[in-house]
Write a structure and sequence with these properties.
Helices cover about 20% and strands about 15% of the residues. The chain is an alpha/beta fold. Helix 3 packs antiparallel against helix 4.
Length: about 525
């Protein structure tokens, strides 16, 4: 009986010690046993702790010095969230996640991972988000993600990927977002996109695609957003966007395009937003966005050579609602017909351009809910009196997201840096402007009158000269004939001296004119 009591006590102690071992919370970590969440971010760990609750759901291990995982996670079968961002992981090995069927989110960004194996992600059939941002991955081999049948977001940004095998994305039937930003791709991996017909968004920013060839995205029928910023694009084939029948958002900013690729937009009938900022076009010519019948927002910021927006530049884009043209340092001209017949236009931002004035009939100012004209070198004279009246009489306090007082004058010097809204008509010198306008028109009218008078005088003089020439050509031959007749008679009937004098006159017509 005594021995049985001792054995019972030993069993109780064993069980108790066992629970203590498995539930030990590391120093500098926070363990919530009720929610089954452990926070060990920045705890100075160099290995994955294996003494936590086996039923753990969330494990945060960011900003530590962990170099490997091996079979550390085999203890935690119920894990749903794992964050190992900013550690020192060099490799993920093979089959190290095979027991994490419940894992939904796996964050492995900013480590030193360079190689992925076909069995690296085996077992992660419930994974929805995988982030491998900021590693050293160079290649995506065939079938590498084949087990990730539930994956919705795949982030491979900021790696060194230059090769993507044709079947690298096989198995990703539920993928919605693919991020390949800031890699070393030298061409659009069109063949690799063949299995991604359900993807909604692809980010290819900061790669190197000088040319977008024909059928670059032909397999992405359901794509809604495509980002191609900072890719060095110089030319876009007219069929490059073929197949993108559901595309809504297209980003082409910070490339080397010297004109609007109008023909390439032919297949983008549903496009709602377009960003063409930081390209090299000099003008937006007539019907540049001709096929974009549903476009609502066009953004062109920081285009270094953009100078003008020409007549009917946005026709027939009658659904256009937002125009954002900011910080184009040479943009100084908008044709008054550039935005004609735009009844849905609601917001216009022309901040930081080179406009010295704005015409009242360029935009439907009264219909706009928002507009931004800040940081332009405005000449505050009577030509802006309409804008002054507009700012002073309409209440924008609730609908605007910036202070209208920031619309300030650049010239004349006496008004420099003063807010336009605070000026008066007298400050704009409208009386002087009207007087100057009258004088200008008067001098112009006088100039035109003088020119007309001079032309009339010259015409009359030329006509007189022509009349004199005609008269001379008819009288002079008759006079010569009559003189010749008289000389012949004198030669026949006169003395020898008279005949000599007549002969002399015949040789020299001026000899007989002395009186």
């Amino acid at each position: 009986m005594k021995n049985q009591g001792i054995i019972g006590i030993c069993l109780i102690l064993t069980i108790s010690l066992k629970n203590v071992v498995f539930c030990l919370c590391p120093i500098r970590c926070q363990c919530n046993e009720e929610k089954l969440v452990v926070m060990c971010d920045g705890a100075g760990l160099d290995v994955v702790p294996i003494t936590l609750n086996p039923d753990l759901r969330e494990l945060h291990l960011a900003r530590n010095s962990i170099k490997g995982i091996m079979t550390a996670f085999s203890v935690y079968h119920s894990l749903e969230y794992l964050d190992m961002t900013s550690n020192q992981l060099v490799a993920l090995g093979r089959n190290n996640f095979r027991l994490q069927e419940k894992l939904h989110i796996l964050l492995l960004g900013h480590n030193m991972i360079s190689t992925l194996y076909c069995s690296t992600f085996d077992g992660l059939k419930g994974l929805r988000i995988l982030k491998l941002t900021g590693n050293f991955i160079r290649e995506l081999p065939d079938g590498i993600f084949v087990e990730l049948v539930s994956l919705e977001v795949l982030d491979l940004s900021e790696n060194s990927i230059d090769t993507i095998s044709k079947d690298a994305f096989v198995g990703l039937g539920n993928l919605k977002i693919l991020l390949l930003k800031d890699n070393k791709l030298g061409h659009v991996p069109s063949s690799s996109f063949g299995t991604l017909s359900h993807v909604l968004s692809i980010d290819l920013d900061l790669n190197n695609f000088p040319i977008l060839p024909e059928d670059s995205f032909v397999n992405l029928a359901n794509l809604e957003k495509l980002s191609l910023g900072s890719c060095g694009i110089r030319k876009i084939h007219k069929s490059a966007f073929k197949g993108l029948k559901n595309l809504l958002y297209l980003i082409l900013q910070d490339n080397l395009l010297d004109s609007i690729p109008t023909e390439a937009f032919l297949y983008l009938r549903k496009l709602l937003e377009l960003n063409l900022g930081q390209n090299y076009m000099k003008a937006i010519v007539s019907k540049s966005f001709n096929s974009l019948s549903n476009i609502q927002t066009i953004t062109i910021n920081s285009a270094p050579f953009l100078e003008r927006i020409e007549s009917e530049a946005f026709l027939p884009n009658i659904r256009l609602q937002n125009i954002i043209f900011n910080h184009n340092k040479k943009l100084s001209y908008i044709d008054r017909n550039a935005f004609s017949s735009f009844t849905l236009l609601r917001a216009v931002s022309l901040r930081g351009n080179n406009f010295q004035t704005f015409s009242e009939d360029v935009l439907p100012w009264s219909d706009l809910e928002r507009f931004d004209l800040r940081d332009n070198p405005l000449i505050c004279n009577c030509s802006l009196s309409w804008l002054l009246h507009h700012l002073q009489t309409r209440n924008y306090s609730e609908s605007f997201d910036f202070d209208l007082t920031h619309i300030r004058c650049e010239n004349p010097p006496v008004l420099r840096d003063l807010m336009l809204k605070g000026l008066s008509i007298d400050d704009l010198r409208c009386h002087e402007y009207q007087t100057q306008k009258i004088l200008t028109w008067s001098f112009a009218a006088i100039g035109i009158l003088l020119v007309a008078l001079l032309v009339a005088v010259l015409w009359f003089r030329q006509r007189t000269v022509n009349d004199l020439k005609i008269k001379c050509s008819t009288v002079i031959p008759d006079s010569r004939h009559e003189n010749r007749y008289r000389m012949d008679n004198q030669l026949r009937g006169g003395t020898s001296q008279e005949r000599e004098w007549v002969v002399k006159i015949g040789r020299d017509p001026y000899a007989g004119r002395l009186v």
